[in-house]
Design a protein that fits this description.
InterPro entries: ApnL_M (IPR058787), ApnL_N (IPR058788). Helix content is 18%, strand content 42%. The chain is α+β, with helices and mostly antiparallel strands and 572 residues long. It has 2 domains: 213 residues, Beta-galactosidase, Chain A, domain 5, CATH 2.70.98.10; 330 residues, Alpha-Beta Barrel (TIM Barrel). Helix 3 runs parallel beside helix 4.
Amino acid sequence: MIQQGHSIILNAGKLHMLFENGFLRYVRLGREEFVRMIYFAVRDANWGTVPYRIEGISTQVDDKAFEISYEAICQQGEIDFRWKCNIVGKENRIFFSIAGRSHSNFYANRIGFCLLHPIRNHAGLPIEIEHSIGRTNSYSFPENVSPHQPFTDISKMEWELESGSAFLDFKGAGFETEDQRNWLDASYKTYCTPLELPFPVLVRPQDEVSQSILLKVEPKPSFKKHGFSNKHFLSISDNHSPLPAIGLESNKDALNPWTINRLKALKLSHVRVELKFDLESWQTDLKLRCAQANMLGVPISLLVFANENRTLLSERLSQIAWSTFDICEVTVIDSQNKSAGEAFLASVLPVVKSFFPNIPLGSGTDFYFAEFNRQAPPMDELDFCSFSANPQVHAFDNRSIMETASSFEDVTKSAKILSGGKPVHISPITLKPRSNPDATEELSSERQIQIRVDERQKGSLCAHWTLASIKYLSTAGAASASFFQTTGNEGLLRQEEKRVFPVFKIFEFLGRYKGGHLIHSFSSSPLEFEGLVLRYKEKIYAVLANFTAEPITINFQDKSITLKARELKFLE
């Protein structure tokens, strides 16, 4: 019997896939991925995904077919919703059906199926979509990150890859597709219910949801079956890129001598400091945060949160002796809207420029790329654009987190287009969301702090994701990246314990070879391992990361290098 948290490889004719936690991942024909994931979710009134547990799982599995059934129980707070699930796979077909019933009163934004399409081999591909009225139209999966739904009113989908053609049939609800790279996910998501319908909706006891998805794949006559390959290699090209200016976010901790010495070794380009006037303690907070930068001898990347009241902004800014701080850049954030607009910038930019003359000035959003993509600020008076990022807007498991790193390449390239080629800053980059731009309920300040902390910050996952993220940021030409906090549960180390987290070693590696260039590299299995390769003073240095729970051997530079489970290996 398959236990929750465990995974198993399944076959449906020539298709193979991973079954994990009740869902299907990585549906492939040979080595070509057709579907990234099929799953279902209950999303609460704040778009939070309600956790679930699996009970009563029943399986019939052989080497060519399978049938799995189980009950999934979604419970959190007032929410109690339960699913009867059945998945049948055979003859290159998968049929996934769900029948759910509510056992309580609650508000929800979405209940039902989601299907993820992988980006790398689908971007730009043509697709045929049949709509609810029976009409079929031709479209293409977006190459640049689409700000809004590229496909709506979906009943069926049909597209073709190198190894075969695929067909999807959705039943039980209206479906549409969004580009999840807006939130850093490496997928297009076809989901229900369409966003044009009102939300949240009241769900009552005994309300029912019944849906199904049929996937059929027809192999081409030229197709030759290949299973999961055990051969891993990291190849490099002649292309190279400068690394972005790497910084960390300051907090209010007083740094001790041990911490100062460790952080100085990172050779940071800047320290990110927020200035939020709506906090009563804004002056004290600013001084404490800037003190960290001064102790480290690192310039300050200042983020000023303001509204359109230029008189109040000038009055507040005039209360600080800015000449005592080394400010390398200023980003202005609209504290009352999701992204900075023309009226806001017209009001605040003259004030900010008067206090910070001849210092690069940028704007954008403190939220996600979605907000920037849907309302990019006018760039005429700006030197750079800025938005934040994290890998856990939609999913929280290790696999989903690691998948997101490659999306940094896509959002950076799309941001460059929106900014007219001006530098792209991603600030901050965190492991968990810091806030929710689409929340419909207020959270207490204590709860907001709780939801920012992830214990995996202290482990190998954070280090692996950071390594891969820096690789793709650099490949796309990001100018600046401000990562985690300096210390504490959201940082790189615990100074009271004199303990650095594994992610610290990634930044320490970059510090040792600051001024080096990233050599573009290709991982044969980027969901299992990655490599960051630098050229510094005509020598090559690299760090490899094994994301899996098993040892793997990687061929790199004509050498076979074995990595233990979850290992980071530095080649210096």
